[in-house]
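Repro:
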Amino acid sequence: PNLNPSFHQAKTRIMAIESVANKCNFSVESVEKGLPTLKNVPIVTQYNNETEKFKGHEFDVDRSAMTYGIGVIPESAEQWIEEVEENGVTKHYLCSDVLLWKRQKKEFEFIKDHKGLSVSMEVMITDANFDDNEILNIDSFYFTAVTVLGVGVAPAFDSANITFAKNEEQIKEMMFELNNFE
């Protein structure tokens, strides 16, 4: 009820814990250490005006990010672990509440129209080592962004996505019904 009307609350599944993706494994301990750095991290994307779609992780030749902010994981956001079944295997996903900025109109409408878009986390690894299977085991890292990916752009973690926490139309309809209840 106290949410600034230029924001919309959403939810994101950020990453699977203890699950290898892109030959990297984030342990429970590393995620616990990195969790405080998730506060105030931007939600980013890049919208292609020609195709009217999102892109992926976009960097220029100097490795500067070409993505831009469309929201944030506020300091007050709640994080939790959610169990997700993928191909018969239960995985544990780190999830968080996020705020999307409605002022990024094209981007906001794209997310609204394409339910459950994939996301990919961006991190800076500060300590890691390779095991005998050439898997990079991450011991410590910090979050730098969560990128909303375009349709068809594969995330590192299959169920990493962003979804609206509540459908505004459903809320309006419920409020109408409550106000007209006799």
